[in-house]
Amino acid sequence: MVGTSILEISESALKHNLSFLRKVIGPEVRFSSVVKGYAYGHGFAAFIPLAEKCGIDHFSVFSAEEAIKVARARTRDSDVMIVGSITEDEMVWAIENGISFYVFDRARLETAMQTAQKLKLPARIHLELETGMNRLGFEENDLEAVAAKLKEAKHDIMLEGVCTHYAGAESIGNYVRIQQQIERFKAMCETLERAGVTIPCRHTASSAATLTYPETHMEMVRVGIAQYGYWPSQETRMHYLLRNGGMNLQPRAEPLRRVLRWKSSVMSIKEVEPGEFVGYGTSYLTERKSRFAAIPVGYSAGFNRNLSNHGYVLISGRRAPVAGIINMNMMMADITHIPGVQPGDEVVLIGKQKRGEISVGAFSDLTRFLNYEVLARLSPDIKREVVK
Ligand SMILES: *Cc1c(COP(=O)(O)O)cnc(C)c1O
Fold first, then answer.
1. What is the CB < 6 Å shell around ligand 1?
2. What are the residues whose beta carbons fall under 8 Å from the beta carbon of 44, sequence distance 6 or more?
3. Domains of the chain
């Protein structure tokens, strides 16, 4: 193994997830693979070509900075769509390179039009509508002016889509709010159409809405977390399985499989007498003669410090509790109960090992971090390796 730890990215798991999601949305709906946050920690260089190999041809990113990296990692001419931040300079790059971007207010629409005119190239845009999240997007009373502007700019602006984002489709507590957003979105699309705008593609659904509210699929979905093998919430999983008769699933039939596995290896082993403190400070006291494995992974790699004395890793397929404080580059794990561990043995931080498994969900249970957040904190410096 090269480096202190490795992230394995599983091709078969990704294929499995994408074919499941394809069944959920049917053959007609376009699938945009959301790869913001360094492809949810999976890494652009590993994930983008792999996703393309598995049939993906549309990627969503948050910023123009990410779009540049994704465009570079592409192996085909997949579409790239920026759903968030783009500066005026970056807009020039986007238009020159055929990268589409969200437009959510009139100032940005004006900038897009003027930049496109200057470049004599069309800007490919997606109009974001404010339907109730109160974050970004055009309001109902903007629509007439937007329609007029689009007509005026019909040679400079290519309207690719109209979209919105739901305020928490992963929780049933937001059910009424989501229903209102769906209604408002449809009504606003009608307003635009009455004003003469042709809408080629409507897209509103993230993973949670895709799995829970089929009426939100429309012409395209934007799926992030589910393609990597995680449910947006336990509620989403329960809802999906109950409705689809799958509560007694065999593990082989599990609709989502984790794409990522994080492994390291034992650096050194130490025996410690009873009544000794281990690591910095006094937070861990041995109560018996103990054995510990030193593991070269710490919070700088994304193993959260809140897991000090709290989390666990897998060694020989068994749980080894984190002993003491997690350091920047290292942690200790108690292996007193695991016989035969040698330096160089594999340590799994996330994923399966023999009959053991540590899910990202287990991290979130222990630390209040969302699974999204655990993934986003995986250091870009960790080597990513695509496996079968
Ligand atoms: C992050 C994001 C998504 C994907 O969300 P998931 O819950 O990961 O599927 C979709 N649309 C927008 C605008 C997003 O920012």
1. 34, 36, 83, 165, 206-208, 222-226, 232
2. 35, 38, 69, 70, 72, 73
3. 11-253 (3.20.20.10), 260-358 (2.40.37.10)
